[in-house]
């Protein structure tokens, strides 16, 4: 039996989270004033009243989406309801352990929360390299997380892995720190200088490991300074990307982009992508899909971002308490 009495507070993506569910990937702290995560009962009738849209069948999960509510039903995990960007209710399946819930809370449920709160939610990783917060986008399997882990191992600060929310204030694009870990397959752990045998799995049925990436300082909002689209080629090259292609990549690499119409967020999303394209320089980085070249790729990125910093006289990244 799951209880709502074991409550803890956490911080992630600028939100203070009060949770009755153990969430060790998140940073402890905060006052719990922004988001509540709790156990509850989610019947079909109740979901009919709250979400008011039919189920969408996706592989392994039934989804409901409306402007202010989103639900997920994984038969072997449980049901999740996310409303108004403030509340997550979970009804675990009978055989589910509490630790089984974490990847679904920190993944799909968090993405739904961020969409409901009005962010542009990119499928990307973000690292501060030579004073510039750089977001890395690309298709699944193109090495976003591996690159972020290797850059972290070289002394750079992780902002977030997999989920990069973006918002705009004062004419500037900002992003927010997520979880101090990266999800990696065993070969990627080795490429980043780690030992997979010493790292926990993110879930008992998922072969990815949790690669811890704590920072020396607590980060607030971070000015986003560069976007890199990952591609594959025989050699490592970095070239500037035109705005039209960047816009397409942002659309393609938006989490839950196929639900934007039901979220009533399509127009907002279009304008957010447009502002990001106009406000942040973007580049394509092509490199062999081979871990043996990862150090060269990281060195090229470090030099490129240092050149960007000097050419545009960019100082250290702006950190805000926003």
Structural commentary:
The strands form 3 sheets. The protein has a 9-stranded mixed beta sheet, covered by helices on one side. A 5-stranded mixed beta barrel has the order 10-11-18-14-13, surrounded by 5 helices. It is 25% helix and 35% strand. Helix 5 packs across helix 6. With 322 residues, the protein is α+β, with helices and mostly antiparallel strands. It is globular and about 55 Å long. It starts with 7 loop residues before the first strand and ends with a strand. The chain has helices spanning 44-50, 102-116, 144-153, 186-191, 243-252, 266-279, 294-311; strands spanning 8-12, 15-19, 27-28, 35-39, 56-58, 61-65, 69-74, 78-83, 87-92, 120-129, 132-137, 157-160, 163-169, 172-175, 181-184, 201-203, 206-212, 221-232, 237-240, 282-287, 319-320. Mean pLDDT is 91; it is low at 314-322. It is built from 7 helices and 21 strands.
Radius of gyration: 19 Å
Strand content: 25-35%
Distance between the termini: 38 Å
Give average pLDDT, whole number.
91
H and E string: EEEEHEEEEEHEEHEEEEHEEEEHHEHE
Task: Report the strand count.
Answer: 21
**Strands in their spatial order, largest beta sheet:** 3-1-2-4-9-8-7-6-5
Percent helix, as a range, is: 10-25%
SS summary, helix count? 7
Q: Uncertain runs with pLDDT below 50, 5 residues or more?
A: 314-322
The rough form would be described as globular
Q: What profile does the largest beta sheet have?
A: 9 strands, mixed
Give me the secondary-structure category.
alpha+beta
């Amino acid at each position: 039996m799951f209880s709502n009495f074991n409550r803890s507070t956490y911080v992630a993506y600028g939100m203070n989270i009060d949770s009755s569910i153990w969430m060790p990937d998140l940073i402890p702290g905060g006052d719990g004033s922004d988001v509540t995560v709790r156990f509850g009962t989610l019947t079909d009738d109740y979901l009919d009243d709250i979400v008011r849209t039919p189920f969408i069948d996706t592989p392994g999960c039934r989804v409901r989406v409306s402007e202010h509510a989103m639900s997920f039903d994984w038969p072997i995990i449980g049901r999740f309801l996310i409303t108004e960007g403030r509340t997550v209710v979970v009804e675990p399946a009978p055989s589910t352990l509490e630790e089984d819930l974490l990847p679904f809370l920190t993944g799909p449920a968090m993405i739904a929360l961020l969409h409901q709160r009005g962010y542009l939610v990119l499928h990307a990783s973000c690292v501060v390299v030579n004073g510039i917060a750089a977001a890395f986008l690309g298709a699944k399997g193109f090495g976003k997380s591996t690159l972020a882990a290797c850059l972290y191992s070289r002394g750079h600060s992780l902002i977030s892995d997999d989920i990069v929310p973006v918002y705009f204030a004062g004419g500037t694009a900002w992003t927010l720190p997520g979880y101090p870990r990266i999800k990696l397959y065993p070969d990627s752990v080795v490429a980043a200088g780690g030992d997979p045998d010493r790292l926990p799995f993110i879930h008992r049925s998922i072969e990815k490991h949790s690669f811890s990436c704590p920072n020396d300082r607590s980060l607030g909002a971070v000015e986003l300074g560069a976007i890199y689209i990952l591609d594959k080629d025989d050699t490592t090259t970095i070239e500037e990307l035109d705005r039209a292609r960047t816009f397409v990549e942002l659309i393609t690499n938006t989490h839950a982009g196929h639900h934007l119409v039901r979220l009533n967020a399509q127009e907002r999303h279009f304008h957010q992508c447009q502002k990001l394209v106009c406000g942040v320089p973007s580049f394509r980085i092509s490199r062999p899909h081979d871990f043996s070249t990862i150090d060269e790729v990281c060195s090229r990125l470090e030099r490129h971002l240092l050149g960007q910093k000097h050419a545009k006289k960019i100082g250290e990244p702006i950190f805000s308490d926003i």
